[in-house]
Amino acid sequence: MNFPEYGGPGDGDGCGVVDHHPDGTAVRCAEAGGWHIAWEHEGPDEIRTSFVCDGHMETVRAAHPYLDRHPVGPDCTHPRTRWVDSRIGAWCRAPAR
What pTM value is reported for the model? Predict the structure, then answer.
């Protein structure tokens, strides 16, 4: 798959997309993540995900395939959260205590 260059998880739900500038510098986006993206399945129970800001979501929609997306919510950054797909859309659900 063709993914945008991603600098890894940011602080909490920050965008991690790396922008390349004409002068040759590469800078990781520091904007707050507005979207949680499911890129691909990693095994039977895992999904590769990341956060992107609103501006980079437009780039992703135009040029990169992904499984699903949803606005960042309060459970998205929980360490054991699970991606949930349903007829009404996707979201993240943190496990019960």
Answer: 0.78
